[in-house]
Amino acid sequence: MAFKPQSENDSAMSEINVTPLVDVMLVLVIILLITAPLLTQSVHVTLPKTAETTANINEQPLQLAIDAQGLITLNKQAIENLPALEIFLKNELVKNKEVAVHLYADQRVVYKKIAEVMATVQHAGIAKIAFVTVEE
Question: What's the helix, strand, coil split of the chain in %, to 5?
């Protein structure tokens, strides 16, 4: 790097040193030339053919609902008490080992009631339970 001798004209140097810029650009071009062939390589795989499938409508989850008064309904049919609910759920579990329960609970229901229903579902042997909520 050359320095100008101090002169009477002390104006700012207006030239840009482009050598570092050219060095960086050359490095980027080299990297591009090395990586470009790697991007075009691919592995050819013959994938297996399968038939189109549809969802099994018979295996819909059970809809267990608790309204504001504490009335329990299963698939829109009223259930008298928790032991009757447990018997019905055990019968459903015998029919389908992968049965699931979707729990719809009113926001005004006391938590104790929801906990009792969840315990009944667990005692029946059903492990898959989901809470259904409404987005605000």
Answer: 40, 15, 45
